[in-house]
Amino acid sequence: MMLRRTTESPDMPEHQAPGQGGRNLTLLLIILFVPAVVVLVAVTMVMGRAWMDGLAVRAVAVTAPQMVDTGPAVGVGPAPQTGRQADAPGSQQAATPTSPINTVTSPTAEVMRLATDFSPARPAWEGALAAGTADEGQQIVDVGGPGLVACSSCHGKAGIAPAGSPFPDLAGKQAEYIAKQLMDFRAGTRNHAIMTPIARAMKDSDVGAVAKYFGGLPLRPAPVRATGPARGEALDRIGDMALGLPACANCHGMGGAGIGPLLPSLAGEPAEYLIAQLHAFRAGSRSNDDGGVMRGFAKRLSETDIRALAEFYAATKSGQR
Ligand code: HEC
Ligand code: HEC
Question: Residue spans with biased composition (Basic and acidic residues) (predicted)?
């Protein structure tokens, strides 16, 4: 009733705040809104906590797989310390004695990263390539090292394999590619009865040293002339649409000359070696091709095509990368 009087008096002075009507209105507001606000606060607190819990669970789920992120060097020795890993906050955490992660004794603990570190993981070969000198590499290649047979006994003096041998030339191959192959043999993504144990006997600094030495050597001197089978040349330059094969030259350069640090040269390699690699990709015993590109192509190549390609590259001595 008082309330109605308040609303019914349009000419009531504005400054009549402490009056009856004002107090009644305040009372009404309190009665209406206080319970609503209390309920709202209670619901927000309960739901808010559930939401926070959800966040916490998710954060753990993100961290867990990082701990088993191994890199290629698992089980064969400590992962290489690249400059970036040494600086990363994750490596400091792994070194904290109280950290539960530290109870993991495998080398995986060293590459532990924070869930908030979204930078791409660096490959193991980068760390290996940073170690060792070309002079140390020459020593290992010419005379070997502790537990290491001289590489030259198969790959030839100065990295050029004896004519007619099944061994690949290493002279002039990109240092990055050679370091990657040796780390891949160690990790098991590339397998070979002879090379796997040799690579596993090598320290990271040995890998870096031989990669630098071979990378700096001149390629096998040879005339620039392609005389291989025509089918091999066609696959190299054009590919085969019907078989879903792009031109090999797209990635390996014209005449198998190689491109950049990680796309290897094929020119001048022994045919037997190239055939063995295509078979290994096809069988999956070599699976170190990122994205599986080479495994895919090798599955689509017939035996005749493989031989034609191998003979084409073996006869193609471009003399340049
Ligand atoms: C007993 C013979 C032998 C010795 C000694 C040897 N290798 Fe090899 N190496 C091979 C064979 C065979 C292959 C081909 C492996 C394959 O088919 O996958 C090979 C392949 C390689 C490759 C891969 C080349 C490519 O183009 O992908 C690298 C790198 C390599 N060897 C480095 C070395 C180093 C470094 C040493 C010395 C520490 C060494 N090898 C000693 C036989 C040998
Ligand atoms: C999309 C890019 C791409 C194309 C196209 C391609 N390759 Fe490769 N190939 C690669 C990469 C990358 C590697 C090296 C993988 C590694 O890191 O070991 C490789 C490696 C190889 C090797 C091993 C070389 C060695 O020294 O051990 C052979 C042999 C080879 N390729 C043959 C071919 C042939 C033949 C074709 C055409 C039918 C072809 N590739 C097309 C990307 C390609």
Answer: 1-14
